[in-house]
Amino acid sequence: MRAKTELFEQFAAAGKGLAHPARLELLDLLAQGECPVEPLAAAAGLKLSTASAHLQTLKASGLVRTRRQSTSIVYRLAGPEVGELLNLLRRVAATHLDGVAPARDRFLGRRGPDDPACEEIDRQALLERVAAGRAVVLDVRPGREYAAGHIPGAVSIPLDELADRLAELPDVEVVAYCRGEYCVLSYDAVRLLTAHGRRAVRLADGMLEWRLAQLPVERPAESTSV
């Protein structure tokens, strides 16, 4: 009994890292690539001390690791299975908790079939349209996340710059994507693009799911610009 209890205590220690919404958001951000605590805190809307405390809990739970970069501590997911765990947790919650769908719709601003951001395509359709020259892939995440890895051939225009840089996009359909299925950035990008008369759709998921599918990931040295 003692050995069994010790084993399940270890499982519970890993689960502790998942038991707070702020820690889940930090994992979501780290699924985009490694990052120091300061930009992580800013992206999550947390005080630096609060973000640091949550990151220490995640580290103690075995879900993240660190390395030193000059005077900063850089965090990363402990392994690809952590991203898989995050994705599975979301799927379980969406399947078995009635509150997930309405909370998702409020957060993403989904307004029903008349909302242009509700039109989406899957990864296969994206690849086919790009191969045929009928679409450009637009990454609307912050530049740091784009630099950590992006869909091959995607161009980077962060959402907060998009309104001023519309002219940089070629005159074809735009497929916007961001961090993952529950990221609002691509929704807002499609609404902005369609309001300016551009044909735009969302990728149904995002970079988290792209990585989990083990699809190719491009980095800046290999990138093409608009």
From TrEMBL:
Cleaved signal peptide residues: none
Rhodanese domain boundaries: 131-219
Cited CDD domains: HTH_ARSR (cd00090), RHOD (cd00158)
DNA-binding recorded as keyword: yes
Residue ranges of every copy of the HTH arsR-type domain listed in the record: 3-97
PANTHER family documented for this protein: ARSENICAL RESISTANCE OPERON REPRESSOR ARSR-RELATED
Annotated protein name in UniProt: ArsR family transcriptional regulator
Organism, scientific name: Pseudonocardia sediminis
